[in-house]
Amino acid sequence: MTETVFDKDYLGNILYVQEYDLPAEAYELQINQNLIIIKHSDEAGKFYAHQTLAQLADDDVMYCGVIKDAPRFEWRGLMLDESRHFFGKEEVKELIDLMSRYKLNRLHWHLSDNQGWRVEIKAYPELCTVGGVGCHSDKTAPARYYTQDEIREVVKYAAERHIEIIPEIDMPGHAKAFGRAFPDLYAGKSTVNPASEKLYEVLETIMTELADLFPGRYIHIGGDEVSTEGWRQRSDIPPFMRKKKIKSYDDIQKYFETRFSKIVNKTGKIIVAWDEVLNGDMDKDKTVIHWWRGTHTETLEKSLSEGFKTIICTWRAFYLDYAQDSRCTKGHLVSKGVYNPMKKLYDYKFPEHSSLIGVQANLWTEYVVTPKRLDYMVFPRAIATAEKAWSIEENINYDDFLRRLEKEYLYLDKRGVYYYDFRNFNAHPEPLK
Ligand code: ACM
User: 228: how many CB neighbours lie within 10 A of its CB?
Assistant: First the structure.
């Protein structure tokens, strides 16, 4: 940057130059005294140049100079759980707007879990009218879910901001809400019944509708924290295991994932799944792994070395449902003194590996009921996640990040975002719901 001041009257005076040599999403922003030149190879790069320009234009004085910028990772994600609590499309759009300011480009939308099924499937209205009843804090709360029209509206809104939405249907565990709609296909202990042929027919119909609804490349199929207890108590499971030559109860998940992933791949989508599925026979060319079990470093190594495209979202740094420090009283494991402060997230060291394609922060919402608390848990840690996902290691510097964050607090204030303010804890008291 030079010290020559840019005349903001010329902010609209932009020349676009398409340069195919630039990598995907990269841009070059030249700020001359009375002309701005944006070089880009794709529309995303052009969009990010504009986001940077908007950030610079927030300053009182804007200087001339050249910025050459490109992302470190292709997957820069945020996960929102709307099964435990439902926030609605306006809140999701607000989140998408904020994500786009920080060049986050994947919204992983956790739309099914034990507490509620949140996406309309026309073939099976009961998934929402029955499965959508209740939430984590009230089992009898009236059904809340997204209609297909609302989903299309949000998907389009996100696409206009270069954000791809990845819907998650979590199976075979975390499936109580599905089970309420389909008691015959439910095995107990949060799991579906893999011995039922009808299950696969129903899943095929659901995933075909879902694939149509979400034009992106990916569908997330869950696969985390699967208990075998429900299966062990059923009389139809042993004959099913004999027939399918499944040797152990643990191998049932493997069988299920293989079949379920084929159903999803048939829709043309690539699968994303939690790292537990690495115990099975997933196709590495059609499966992306979310590594979340931070104490299982061997699983991260397995995922990378076997050539699975891998996204790091370890709970030990990137889980936003954990409180930010000991002054907070609410959050996952807070009573055990476990926190995820922003510095821990920011200082996380990624392994260097060509199969590592991204990073993601996850907001589970058992203890997040209101948009106010959602803001509080997500910001500013999402901004730190965005910087980790975008910047190369040499540019990662926490003190410098904190200095630049001061300006973002002003932006968040202007937008009415109720962020956690560790500079002055009492400025934004912790919302308990
Ligand atoms: C998870 O946190 N169960 C993926």
Answer: 18
Ligand 1: atom nearest CA of 222 is 4
- Topology of domain 8-69, CATH: Chitobiase; domain 2 (3.30.379)
30 phi and psi angles, rounded to 5 deg: -105, 120
Helices H / strands E in the chain, number of each: 15, 16
Q: Which residues line ligand 1 (CB under 6 A)?
A: 224-225, 274, 292
> What integer pLDDT is reported at residue 24 of this predicted model?
97
In 93-211, at which residue ranges do the beta strands (DSSP E only) sit?
106-110, 112-113, 116-117, 164-171, 186-188, 191-192
CA of 237 to the centre of ligand 1 (A): 26
pTM summary value: 0.97
What are the CA-CA distances from residue 246 to residues 36, 48, 200, 225, 236 (Å)? 64, 50, 17, 20, 13
Ligand 1 centre distance from Cα of residue 25 (Å): 30
Per CATH, the number for 75-415 is: 3.20.20.80
What is the domain partition of the chain in residue ranges? 8-69, 75-415
Closest alpha carbon to 304 in 267, 255, 355, 258: 355
Range 129-149 average pLDDT: 98
Burial class (CB in 10 A: 0-12, 13-18, 19+), 422: middle
Same topology for domains 8-69 and 75-415, yes or no? no
What's the farthest any 2 CA atoms get from each other in the chain?
Answer: 78
Condensed to tens digits (0 to 9), the pLDDT of residues 363-395 reads 999 999 999 999 999 999 999 999 999 999 999
Element (H, E) at 238: helix 237-244
Q: 224 CA distance to ligand 1 centroid (A)? A: 6
Of residues 333, 416, 431, the one with CA closest to residue 373:
431
Rounded Cα distance between 241 and 163, Å, is 42
Protein residue whose Cα sits closest to atom 4 of ligand 1? 224
Residues 382 and 293: their CA atoms lie apart, in Å, by 20
